[in-house]
Amino acid sequence: MRHTRKMLQAAALACLLGQFALPATAAAQGYPDKPITMLVPYPAGQSVDLLARVISDGLSKVLGQPIIVENKPGAGGTLGTGLVARAAPDGYTLGMSSSGPLGIAPHLFKNTNYDPVKDFTAIMNVAAVAQTMVVSAKSDITSVQDLVAAAKAKPNKLNFGSPGNGSTSHLTQEMFKQRAHVQMLHVPYKGGPAAITDLIGGQIDVLFEASPTVTPFINRGDLRALAVTTRAPIPALPQVKPLASQGYENFEAVGWMGIVGPAHMKPEVVRTLHAALVKTLQDPAVRQKLDTQGMLTVGDTPEQFAAFIKSESEKWGSVIRSADIKVQ
Fold first, then answer.
1. How far apart are CA 220 and CA 270, in angstroms?
2. SS3 label, residue 219
3. Signal peptide: which range, if any (predicted)?
């Protein structure tokens, strides 16, 4: 997708956001005239929650109304996301959701009770987090080519860890297996830290994990980075090549976080919110907070975000069906 490539061109971000800005005449008259609630489908302190609070603070200043962040965790993020889908489409209930509930969960769980494409109004894909393919620094595997060769030489002998069955990390590895035509065993953990500990210790062979999480381990020599999952290198690991440039054309798998509302919101309300978000992301203080969290600013249009949600849902649905992934 064009806008996901642009998200990594940090030097051009100001220009990028400027072209997404909408004229003041497109704004909704009188909106907002009361506080706005932003639902977060995860617990406080999680990355989506942190982003929601940073953006809400800036958005409140631009709109002149309080933005109240409410955490509604549960069911892998589908509980809170479903509440957004069922809210009144008046612009006073929004959601900061992510790739899990909107791109992955509807294909894993039978009772999400919403359609990620039809039941939401896309407003802006705000930020993304790259993943990095890592092995232990003590491993004999020093490149993606080494990994593929070893996996092909001994099918189902190498294993890969993940923070959990059906996680973005798990699905990214499954997508890589499909593209590389290799067979490896999946070892699910209850969270990323346990998987990283076992990777360093040599109990598992490879792991895809959020770049901000593994970068400290890479920098101090515990882990070796083989690739990143964005279309271009990321600022935190500029020396690490993307899989897309290592023979896996168009390979992309990021954890993204964006703002949506219920379906059928008025276009002028969407334009008002989007223009305010553009202005919020142009604030250096906001950008600094996102950079500190290792987040890559996206800042696309509602139309681009809607198309992106659709493409992500289709991509992950295909991976899940091909790998026959089941979640209890």
1. 45
2. helix
3. 1-26
